[in-house]
Amino acid sequence: MPNAKAYSAASATSPLASSTIVRRDLTPDDIQIEILYCGICHSDLHQARNEWKDVFATVYPCVPGHEIVGRVAKVGSAVTKFKVGDLAAVGCMVDSDGTCPDCKEGLEQFCPNFTLTYNSPDKHLGGVTYGGYSESIVVREKFALKVPANLDLAGVAPLLCAGITTYSPMRHWGVGPGKKVGIVGLGGLGHMGVKFAHALGAHTVVFTTSPGKKEDALRLGADEVVISKNPEEMQRHLFSFDFILDAVSAEHDVNAYLQLLKRDGHMVLVGAPEKPLQVAAFNLLFGRKSLSGSPIGGLKETQEMLDFCGEKGITSDIELIPIQKVNEAYERLLKSDVKYRFVIDMASLKG
Length: 351
Known about the structure:
The protein has 351 residues and is α/β, with parallel strands linked by helices. Helices cover 23% and strands 26% of the residues. Helix 4 packs across helix 5.
């Protein structure tokens, strides 16, 4: 079993530091990927610091990272989708049972027995899975995705989480030409939501509390920008939206946005506020409106999203960092001090 260099957290209070982990030998349907870039997701920080202990308790050492882009270094004897030298990507999942109704419908993200890319039970080696803050990963070819060769690879990495998290609900609820779509929040998720809504042909409106973000929202593809703290601006959009994507993870008033939906309009949460949100029933009853949540997408939809990005030239806006600055990036992430996603250049791990 090969060793691999990695960055891991030894405890909830430890900074990420250089370490060595073990990767499994290839089974017939596995590929080994040399990791070129790995995005930093806010959930990496939560997991490394065991902030989700009531739901996903962290097992240490923890190697985060589920926005992985790299090049195939080895293939198992039964692999047909990839050959050595191909570009490949891995997102939030590396396995599922393949037999449940969700898996059979291509909705592996809802499989009750899926395996997360890190901090999930590892049926091959015991312990838990290790993620993409590493020089390599071994994964079933089914859970690896093809990467369009025309895209900037560093900018592709966040598509494996932030990208599919915003693309999936838009596809599910039919965002497209003739639809008026709102994006609440202009951060790592929100900026991808703007790009996708625009590329899908919808009239795209960004809601932000920060007037300074207006210019950037327009650059990313917004048709309009609404300062949500301004009651008059909000009032102008009452009962007019087909779909609203809420990408805010901080505590906020969802009722202000539910009032903007037209009859049968839909609002979906992709952010995850720590505290429960209060919803006024009448904001749903009048107009037959609906409110739901959505995680990532399944394998088929994630590949569709990557192909769509290849056709439209869509990548994430990123700040590329060496892995030695990952702890600094975590602190900046807490302050929302990034436009709009950090990505680790894994070549720095070899230094």
